Amino acid sequence: MNRKRTLRFVIPALSVAFLEACSGGSKATNSPDVQAAGKPSAAPVLSVPATVNVYEGLTATFLMPSATVGAGRSASWSMSGLDAARFQIDPATGALSFRQAPDTAKPADADAHNDYDIVVQVSDGQRSTQAPLKVQVLAWNDGGAAGLPLPLAAREVARPAGTTGQPGLRVLDWAGFKAAMSYTFDDSQPSQIDHYPELKAQRVRVTYYINPVANWYPNFDATWKDAVAQGSEIGNHTTHHCRAAELTDNDPNTCPQGLGSAGAEFDDTSDYIRTKIGQSGVWTSAYPFGDMDYKPAATSRFMVARGVWPGMVAPGTGSDLMNLPLAQVPGAATADGHPVSAFNTAVDTALGQGKWMIYLFHTLVPTTQNWGGAESIAAVTGNMAYAKSSGTMWIDSVVNIGAYWRGQQLLQAATPATLGGVTTWTWTLPPNFPSGRKLRVVVNGGTLTQNGTPLSWNARGYYEVSLDAQSLSWTQ
């Protein structure tokens, strides 16, 4: 009997919209027979999807195709086609990646449509098989400002059949990623505006905590409007950045322009963000100086608030919603801040612990407006690139990750009720919770429904649940 070896394919996270856009496998063609020891050889069996979707801005491996070759033979991979020069393929594993990060604004494929055509070929040294592959490049923010990114999907996951008679409902931590991270920038500083093009070029959603009193600087409103258009969040850092006690101490020397209360400072800034910047809502805040005297006012106005104490947030836990911690960067900073290696080490720590890390940045250098706490823009953008390259880190704004984290708590805390063979979970969204948010869940078989409509199983391994529905039902 002829024993065979199978090489499985792997599609790394953040690179591929996992076969969702596939139109079926490609039609493979074989080379003529080659005689070996007087017997015709069996051609390799090649499995390649017809189409694979890849996000722009990434050079990570996006596909490792599958091939079955005869016993005692090894697969050797190569490629050809109109756009083959834009890719590289590992001859031993078949791992495919872009040579340079694709950019949807500057398509480099032959017809300039952001769909690259190549032919994948595998040989066992005697015969070869090949199949066409179309690589469709998607905009990095394809899911919209509130869309969940695609998690790691090593292979297609079958819908659970279930035999226990119990739902076994479980929420995927961090939307299916290993960990999560948010970049936050405080004080709406001139250096952040000056370096905004470099931050924007990284194609990640971040949170800018602004003080409208700083709107004297050129391009203040224009920068934050563009950030919102790109999917980032504008958060509330109060209008005048005073300590809360200074707002009510009747001392004209401490905060002469202060609005009289913490609530008034928050409300004035939220109004500015809605009317001047055009963001539909304001869901998160950061305390000036980390001043916890702002907490009572924040609690009634925001979904979550960020403090300045050191730490990270575990998934689904009861960490203080109104005092989220900051990730610590190892080592002492120089005049130009920390090296990118220190930030990268912090990312590795978060991935190892499976937690949500939040960075805080103030001044970005080089700049002529150093307001303190300087960090190099090269180190910040270099760390963004490093975090993306892991393929297992969810990088997003505080409102997006915070809504998922908070939503997971709500569903996990819901007590299911069973009636007539239907198990139902209900929850109530808290005030100041953004609309249109989802959770990714799994169950031990059966059918999940919301508002009477069955949920579709995603081949990456989950159902997506609408938090707005505030109810989820399961039947065996």
From TrEMBL:
Coiled-coil annotated residue ranges, if any: none
UniProt-listed Gene3D superfamilies: Cadherins, Glycoside hydrolase/deacetylase
Residue ranges of every copy of the Cadherin domain listed in the record: 87-151
Keyword hit for Signal: yes
Assigned keywords, A-Z: Signal
Keyword Signal: yes
Family annotation (SUPFAM superfamilies): Glycoside hydrolase/deacetylase (SSF88713)
Span of the signal peptide: 1-28
PROSITE patterns to which the protein is assigned, alphabetical: CADHERIN_2 (PS50268)
Protein name as it appears in the record: Polysaccharide deacetylase family protein
Native source organism of the sequence: Massilia pinisoli
